[in-house]
Amino acid sequence: MPYIGRSTDGFGVRNRFIYLASSGDTSVSGADANGATLTFTDGAYVDVYLNGVLLKPTTDYNTSTANTIAGLSALNTNDEVTVIVYDVFTVADMVSATSGGTFSGAVTANSTLDMNGTELILDADGDTSITADTDDQIDFKTGGTDRMSISSEGKLSVTMTSTNTNVESDIGAVHILKNTSSTNNTGSMLCLGSNSNFGTGIYGQLVDNSTNEHKFGIQVRNSSGSSGTRMLIKGDGKVGIGTTTPSVNVHIVEDSTEGTPTYAGATHLAVQASASSGDNCNIAITSGSAVDIWICLIHFISGFPSFITFFFIIYCIDSLNFCSFFLCLINSFAKCFTVLN
After folding, report:
1. E strand or H helix that includes residue 299
2. So what's the pLDDT on residue 186?
3. Percent of the chain topping pLDDT 70
4. Bridge partners (DSSP) listed for residue 240
5. Who contacts 175 (Cβ-Cβ below 8 Å, separation ≥6)?
6. Which of 40, 237, 280, 328 is the most exposed place for a label (fewest CB within 10 A)?
């Protein structure tokens, strides 16, 4: 093992231990005549002198026992044994700053790690990496191809190939997976908002483990601070607005607390107004800012029996100041008539 020389006598850094023997001693160790304790790392860097005469290693003594000079011939009283121990050092296990190298173990940086625009390679064959070779932009590469970039403005760009064989990974460029196998878990997976106030979220929700059926929902927070699902698309294509249980192709509900009626099998559009809506119009068809057609359903008008439902189709042509009212009284009986204005 090498040593670094620092002394003026040609030797490396060394320590001198002097022992005065007792009659019959065959070894020296521990504290010497000056109170210094004998220690050494490698017996090859130890010299032993008996009364000034250099002894031969392994022949006149041995260092088989740690920090001990043993195997001496029986000493006489006050024989002087001098032990010279040369300090040794281990060449630092380091990677060259000039030519580089390999770290076999974990590396911890307690301060800034400056890549200076070069790649941080992540896999064994060197084709998956993170780099900032374009100033103020971070690029993520897999398989030797740029896949995702974050610009200086914070814009995220994701690029995918069309060669994926995994169906799940081929449904879109951005794949967000919530790590849960439980059904009806509606926690938002993508939150939208401003100023750290996230009031809108979208989620994909597992409905049935056996069929892997999902539904897609949009959550929005209202003025009262309550966040709920305002629109939902089921796996069978049914769309619900104001309801999470659409029973027809497009189901619009004003008050979801009033329950869902039974619709005929051929129903494709259901507009479920609140029973307390009075004469509010259910559907309006406009041309520009002018309303041309209203379709209204009124469950109750003061003075009429509650079992009578009024259904209006009001068609107006503003330029001719003309309106046609088509009114049906339905439930227990059906009567239809037209009123022209």
Report:
1. none
2. 55
3. 64
4. 232, 251
5. 168, 169
6. 237
Tens of pLDDT, residue by residue over 281-292, are: 567 767 666 656
216 with 238: CB under 8 angstroms?
A: no
Please compute, for residue 106, the number of CA atoms within 13 A of its CA located in the half-sphere on the CB side.
Answer: 1
> How many angstroms separate the CA atoms of 71 and 62, rounded?
6
pLDDT of residue 310 exceeding 60:
no
Average pLDDT (259-286) is 68
> Using 50, 70 and 90 to split pLDDT, how confident is the model at 172?
low
- Reference 36, options 105, 96, 82, 89; nearest CA is 82
Domain range summary for the chain, segments of one domain joined by + = 14-86, 120-170, 283-340
Token pair listed for 288: 């520009």
Reading across the β-sheet that carries 190-194, which strands appear in turn?
Answer: 190-194, 197-208, 213-221, 227-233, 239-241, 250-253, 269-272
**Residue 297 neighbours by CB under 8 Å, 6+ apart:** 271, 273, 282, 309, 310, 311, 312
- As a whole number of angstroms, the distance between CA 128 and CA 141 comes to 5
Q: Give the predicted TM-score (pTM) of the model.
A: 0.46
Greatest mean pLDDT among 113-122, 301-310, 313-322: 113-122
**Tokens describing residue 333:** 């009986």
- The structure tokens 């483990």 sit at 209
Q: Is 30 left (phi over 0), alpha (psi -120 to 50) or beta?
A: left
Quickly count: other Cβ atoms within 10 Å of residue 32's Cβ: 19
User: 295 near 278, Cβ under 8 Å?
Assistant: no
